[in-house]
Design goal:
The complex is a heterodimer. By secondary structure, chain A is mainly alpha-helical. Chain A is built from six helices and three strands, in the order αααααβββα. Chain A has helices spanning about 5-15, 20-30, 30-45, 60-70, 95-100, 155-190, and strands at about 105, 130-135, 140-145. In chain A, strands 1-2-3 form a three-stranded antiparallel β-sheet. In chain A, helix 1 (about 5-15) crosses helix 3. Chain A is flat. Chain B is of the alpha+beta class. Chain B folds into two domains: about 50-240, outer membrane lipoprotein receptor (LolB), chain A; about 250-350, MucB/RseB, C-terminal domain (Phosphorylase Kinase, domain 1). Helix content of chain B is about 20%, strand content about 40%. Chain B has helices at about 5-30, 40-75, 235-240, 340-345; strands at about 80-90, 90-100, 105-115, 120-125, 125-130, 135-140, 165-175, 175-185, 195-200, 205-210, 215-230, 260-265, 270-280, 285-295, 300-305, 315, 320-325, 330-335, 350. Chain B has an eleven-stranded antiparallel β-sheet with strand order 6-5-4-3-2-1-11-10-9-8-7, with helices on one face. In chain B, strands 13-14-15-18-17-16 form a six-stranded antiparallel β-sheet, covered by helices on one side. In chain B, strands 12-19 form a two-stranded antiparallel sheet. In chain B, a hairpin with a 2-residue loop joins strand 1 (about 80-90) and strand 2 (about 90-100). The N and C termini of chain B lie far apart (about 50 Å). The chains are: A mainly alpha, B alpha+beta. The interface between A and B is large, with 77 and 91 residues. Chain A: Keywords: Cell inner membrane, Cell membrane, Membrane, Transmembrane, Transmembrane helix. Chain A: Interacts 1:1 with ECF RNA polymerase sigma-E (RpoE); this inhibits the interaction of sigma-E with the RNA polymerase catalytic core and leads to a decreased expression of sigma-E-regulated genes. Interacts with RseB. Chain A: InterPro entries: Anti-sigma-E_RseA-like, Anti-sigma_E_RseA_C, Anti-sigma_E_RseA_N, Anti-sigma_E_RseA_N_sf, RseA. Chain A: It comes from Aliidiomarina maris.
């Protein structure tokens, strides 16, 4: 593998466009594919987007599946057509209550920390740090920081990560309660005299 | 990550460049030759102009409300098969959105995320099931599927008319279709507004943008394809027979609020829709919890014990967060409102006097 190839790889990881023929040749090369995965993982970790436990190599499986696909000229089956028998829709046999609403993935927390040598004159971030709280079955919720007044979450180390966790906690919990509240609103609309008991007035 | 400058930002800057020198000249002219408007002119002109603008405004609001309701009905009655993208911050997510009504009035709606781990939500009248490839599926009793389109868009305008008015802006072209542009604006300028483009022929929602008080776009949904049919599609009909996962057990809503609290300021139209005391997601911290809604904007109020090093945090975006200390408590508000509004609400919280 040449340095040129690695250059292409790193461009790909950074989300830049590369030539289609280069991409094809890279995908044919197993060594390149593995290298790409390592780059991708490293890039995710640098961006603090890594989701431990999900770094699964599926490319071999996908390649096998693609090979097994019937000709693409056949009318493409609508993806839900096998609906009724699809295991996708099958309700879970045992229902873990705690895991259902409480199961939340927090993805793409863009950690924003200044290295000691950078923390001099320009403290102003070139990029806004981004939190994304995504409750399962909900909608992603990235929030960019408005000129942060006090910026305790910029602190390094354990304290900083605790504070990030706290902020995530609020965003995720808010999304969960929003979704759960829709049930109640419906119930309340059906029997309009059903008022909530404690109300800060 | 806002490295890209959008075309309208550039356009605005260009406009400023053009306008600024002209304005400077005007200002200079104004200071050198102060001109008081003659009273007679004012007296004669004002009533007529204000009258005509008032009636114009009224008709634009009536028209706006009609378009809003037409969209709301279309979302409930049309047989459509659409794709849209949801953009928020620098994230963009594609979805497929299918809806149909059978002859006996059964509504089926399907929303599926097209990127990343598979996610689908399936609504069967007032029963919504959520499926995620990484989680246990569950169902809820609600007639609104929780997705990128605000839940308030599925209700008549009447439901939000306390807090918002809606204005018909004019025509436009969206997805190569003639569209009607309407704007939902808060009456008190305490919350975000929404620009909505409605398909003139079907009433379908084609595009919506959440807009800050300064005019910045915070969040957008844009349809990229739309097929409208006379009948519910066969594929959707097939989904009627699917066994659905169990209803969710809302264990976080069992315990009543522990403290006694009073909010001294709340923007008009907000009502309490939920209150409890629960352990929060992620940290497991116990908090008194209140959820308020004006039909479109919603915010969560948390009152929790103050930790040793609890930070003061202020974040503004499509969802804003304000967190500060009040005596021995940490008061936090998260919601789809401007930071200044949630800050004012949080600052107005007092322990209720018995």
């Amino acid at each position: 593998m040449t340095d040129k190839h690695n250059e292409h790889l790193s461009a790909l990881v950074d989300g830049e466009d590369i030539d289609a023929s280069v991409l094809d040749s890279m995908l044919e090369d197993d060594a390149q594919k593995q290298q790409f995965q390592r780059y991708q993982l490293a890039s995710s970790i640098i961006r603090n987007e890594a989701q431990p436990g999900f770094a699964v190599d599926i490319s071999a499986a996908v390649a096998a599946q693609v090979a097994a696909e019937p000709s693409l000229q056949m009318p493409a089956k609508r993806w839900w057509q096998k609906a009724a028998n699809d295991s996708w829709w099958r309700p879970a046999a045992s229902f873990a209550v705690a895991a259902s609403v409480a199961l939340v993935t927090v993805i793409g927390v863009q950690n924003y920390q200044l290295s000691p040598e950078q923390s001099g004159a320009d403290q102003v971030p070139a990029e806004n740090p981004l939190f994304e709280a995504r409750p399962l079955g909900g909608v992603g919720n990235p929030v960019s920081f408005n000129a942060v007044q006090e910026a305790p979450m910029l602190q390094q180390g354990a304290q900083g990560s605790d504070q990030r966790r706290l902020i995530q906690s609020f965003f995720v919990d808010h999304q969960q309660q929003l979704q759960l509240s829709q049930q109640e609103q419906e119930a309340a609309e059906q029997s309009s005299d059903n008022q909530p008991e404690s109300q800060p007035e | 990550m806002n490295l890209g400058v959008s075309w309208w930002q550039i356009a605005t800057m260009m406009l400023l460049l053009i306008v600024a020198p002209a304005k400077a000249q005007q200002d200079a002219a104004a200071t050198s030759q102060p001109q008081a408007p003659t009273p007679s002119q004012q007296a004669t002109e004002q009533p007529t102009t204000s009258q005509s603008t008032n009636s114009q405004q009224d008709s634009r609001q009536i028209e706006g409300a009609q378009w809003f309701d037409r969209m709301q009905q279309a979302l409930r009655a049309l047989n459509f098969d659409a794709h849209f993208v949801h953009a928020r911050g620098d994230r963009i997510e594609p979805y497929r959105w299918v809806h149909g009504v059978s002859d006996n009035g059964t509504e089926i709606e399907l929303l599926a995320g097209m990127n990343g781990p598979e996610y689908r939500a399936l609504r069967h009248n007032n029963h919504v099931s959520y499926y995620h490839s990484l989680a246990t599926p569950y169902s809820m009793r609600t007639s609104v599927l929780s997705g990128p389109v605000p839940a308030g868009f599925f209700q008549p305008f009447q439901n939000i008319s306390n807090a918002y008015h809606v204005v018909s802006v004019g025509g436009g072209r969206v997805m190569d279709r003639p569209a009607q542009h309407i704007r939902v604006v808060s009456r008190d300028r305490q919350r975000y507004g929404y620009s909505i483009w409605v398909d003139r022929s079907t009433g379908m929602l084609l595009r919506t943008a959440t807009v800050s008080l300064e005019g910045d776009v915070l969040e957008q949904v844009q349809l990229t394809s739309l097929f409208v049919n006379d009948e519910m599609s066969e594929n959707l009909r097939e989904l009627k027979s699917i066994a659905r996962p169990p209803l969710i057990d809302d264990h976080s809503n069992r315990e009543p609020v522990r403290g006694a609290w009073a909010l001294n300021w709340l923007p008009q139209g907000f009502e309490l829709v939920r209150s409890n005391s629960h352990r929060m997601a992620v940290t497991g911290q116990q908090a008194d919890y209140f959820l308020y809604s004006d039909g479109l904007a919603k915010f969560s109020l948390y009152i929790s014990a103050r930790g040793q090093d609890t930070p003061s945090v202020q974040i503004e975006g499509a969802d804003s967060l304000y967190s500060a200390q009040l005596n021995d408590y940490q008061v936090t508000i998260v919601g789809s409102l401007p930071l200044a509004t949630i800050e004012r609400i949080a600052q107005s919280l007092r322990p209720a006097t018995p």
